[in-house]
Design goal:
Alpha-Beta Plaits, 3-stranded antiparallel sheet, Ribosomal Protein S8, Chain: A, domain 1, 15 helices, Hypothetical protein af1432, 518 residues, 3-stranded mixed sheet, mainly alpha, single chain
Amino acid sequence: MLQCLVAFILGAIIGFIIAYFGVKTFNIARKKDAESIAKEILERAEQDADNKRREVEIALKEESIRFKADSEKEFRQIRQELYERERILDKRQDVLEKQADDIRKQEKLVETSQRRLAEKIEERNRKLEELKKLIENERVKLHEISGLSREEARKQLFRLLESELQEETGALVLRYEKTMQEHCEQIAREKVLLAIQRYAAAHTTESTTSTVDIPNDDMKGRIIGREGRNIRAFEKITGVDVIIDDTPGVVIVSAFDAIRREIARLSLSRLITDGRIHPSRIEEIVRETDHEMQSLIQKAGSEACDEVDVHGLNDRVVNFLGRLHFRTSYSQNVLRHSVEVAYLSGMIAAELGLDQRLARRCGLLHDIGKAADHELEGGHPQIGAELLKRYGEPTEVVQSALGHHDDPRIDDPYTVIVAAADACSASRPGARRETLEHYIKRMEDLEAIANEFSGVEQAYAVQAGREMRVLVSASQTTDESAAQICRGIVNALTQRLQFPGEIKVTVIRETRCTEIAK
């Protein structure tokens, strides 16, 4: 029994010990597991903190990059605006420098003219003093011989001179006009060939710009391109100036060469329609447009030759002829002017019994030099003559191009015919436009000059200023003095005015007798 109790107690003690150490071992293991878990949690927390830190750093870097990109974009925009303003200022500065150069040239001309005028005035004053001394001596001698007073002699002498001058000059004019009328049929051909033609003064301005419509103002930025590369490439390839200003919906193309300006205008319109605007595309479009323009120029020259029945021309001459379609003079198309001169020359030659085909050929090619006067030095008559001679044209054609603006020689009838036809085409009503103010001023000047003559009652400019009809007083003038007034008006118009063609002056003198029957 005791042994059983002892064994039970020992077993209980052993069991307690075993349980104690088991619990302790379990606690130790549990503690290690808890430490491991805590360590894992701390590592995970540190990793999460590192991830959060990296995310924040990445977000800050992205925000910095975005801010830098926005700043660069704004900077490029400001730099582009500054570039455009600088470009506009450069163009304005060029214009101002050109105007300053023109003003300096004019000042030099004025100084030279003033110096020459002063010399002439001094010479005139010297001669005038000598003349006064001679006149005074003659007056003294005349007074001693006639026994008249100075005022009486002067009045009597002036009345006598004026009366004799009016009668003699009037009779002389009438006699020569009558003689000319009697022999007009005999000298008709010489009169036509020797007719004096008055040419229109050279024009000073012509159109040098073309406008291109754009769908919206955003297209201007695409035309300019990044840092202006598109517009620089376009101007370099076409040789024109592209002006982009604040005008809405319009881009301006400027150049003195009309063909180059037209190629640039068509190319820019095609680029805007296509939408792909970059240097390589610009070069491709301009090359295609230039090829089409050359075909159009050749076609225009060929059509003009067929229209006036002139054949056998060199292809290069036909090309120069087609280029005249893009030239104007006083807004008159030079190619249409050349065709008109060809027709007129042919009709005049037919009337004179000369070669009508050769005359049309001379008239068609007389202004051919205007197609190359921007490429070669000299006036268009000399350039045209050299070109026609180089391409084997007849001597008459070469001489007509060379001399149609000079005094033509009587032994070269085709040059005279072309000069006359050229003047007729240029001076006919409607051929060349002029402003309303200039037209009214010219009419007023014509009538004012006629009204300055003694005995003129009324003067009218008719036929667009190409005819003057002057009414003179029958009581203050005679038939001889009316002829003298007519001649004086013609001389005054020739000396004091510049006008295209010719002006016919008609002086009308009539006597009206009125009685009343009762």
